[in-house]
């Protein structure tokens, strides 16, 4: 599959690179096929690129890299869509955006990815975590990589 993207130019993706999000993502429910791409300039960041919309790419981080005590509590009904087995390798990632404080991440609605099954979903945590948690100790290169690509939040 070939896709023209705003961020990465032309990408050639095969099925093994795609993840199915059966319910889509919040605000993008109709977009179900996504590629998880590394950011070669900054290993702290990955990108979730829509396979059907070249203008949709989300910067992601592992929240535990910035918040070691981060734990997400997810309702079982949300986990069933990932077909999780006891030995499943699940990635927990959170989206990045920018506001007047700098970079912030959404700890309340993480993205879960089952690597083995190539399935993903975005969930709302059962705990009262912040939607816009500042990343206070982010590195300068993380800032420059992300801030240049993000619209300012109101």
Automatic annotation (TrEMBL):
It comes from the Bacteria. Pfam families: FliW. It is found in: Cytoplasm. GO terms for biological process: bacterial-type flagellum assembly; regulation of translation. InterPro entries: Flagellar_assembly_factor_FliW, Flagellar_assmbl_FliW_dom_sf. Keywords: Bacterial flagellum biogenesis, Cell projection, Chaperone, Cilium, Cytoplasm, Flagellum, Translation regulation. The keyword Nucleotide-binding does not apply. One of its GO terms (cellular component) is cytoplasm. Acts as an anti-CsrA protein, binds CsrA and prevents it from repressing translation of its target genes, one of which is flagellin. Binds to flagellin and participates in the assembly of the flagellum. Belongs to the FliW family. Interacts with translational regulator CsrA and flagellin(s). This is Flagellar assembly factor FliW. It comes from Stieleria bergensis. The gene is fliW.
């Amino acid at each position: 599959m070939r896709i023209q993207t705003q961020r990465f130019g032309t990408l050639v993706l095969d099925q093994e690179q795609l993840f199915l999000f059966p319910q889509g993502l919040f605000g993008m429910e109709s977009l179900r096929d996504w590629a998880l791409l590394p950011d070669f300039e900054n290993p702290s960041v990955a990108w979730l690129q829509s396979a059907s919309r070249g203008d949709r790419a989300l910067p992601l981080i592992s929240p535990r890299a910035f918040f070691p005590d981060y734990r997400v509590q997810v309702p079982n009904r949300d986990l069933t869509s990932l077909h999780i087995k006891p030995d499943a390798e699940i990635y927990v990632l959170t989206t990045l955006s920018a506001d007047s404080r700098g970079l912030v991440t959404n700890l309340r609605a993480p993205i879960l990815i089952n690597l083995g099954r190539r399935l993903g979903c975005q969930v709302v945590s059962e705990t009262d975590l912040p939607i816009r948690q500042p990343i206070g100790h982010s590195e300068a290169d993380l800032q420059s990589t992300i801030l240049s690509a993000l619209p300012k939040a109101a």
